[in-house]
Sequence to fold (198 residues):
Amino acid sequence: MPVSFERRDEIGIVTLSRPEARNAWGADFNEGIARHFAAMEDDDEIRCAVLTGDEAGGAFSAGANLKDPRTHTMKSAAEFIKSIADAATDGNTVRLAPVLIQPVAAEDVASAVGRIALGSPVNGIVEIAGPEQFRLDELIRRSLDTQNDPRQVIADPHARYFGAELKERTLIPSNGASRRRIPRLTRACGSCAYTRYI
Fold:
């Protein structure tokens, strides 16, 4: 089982386990984490949640599972965008809040995390985001149009995003956050940025 759960008194421990690949991340981790964290959220006895990697893997997680063909592909970004649309679909209508989104490529996140982990302690939160902001409903509308999907996207400020009602800036770095620029991201993406993937 790639994601396991253990309870120690009031602590819920979710462990990523792919030790033969240093606990490399895959879609199965997303599903397992979502399942176990939802169960912990419903359990009033759990006071603390821990996400860790299998000790036999020698790392929390080495990053993306490069042996998985869905990793770092245009298709995986399209699948993620489609999952947002599917979760918000009722009949032939997709209701999404017109909130800001600022997606960043997984490769750039991994690079930033590596630099931050090996650097001096920041004693705070470092938020990273892609080079451009746009509205969530517009992202999904453009993606569905590209795929000739007939669903109509409606901007609804009270629409839920995987169960949560969002404010305009929920999905982007906060105003007071300490932001770090990712130089390679700017060079690699240029003006095309995330919209190139839809």
Summary: The CA atoms of residues 46 and 73 lie 37 Å apart.
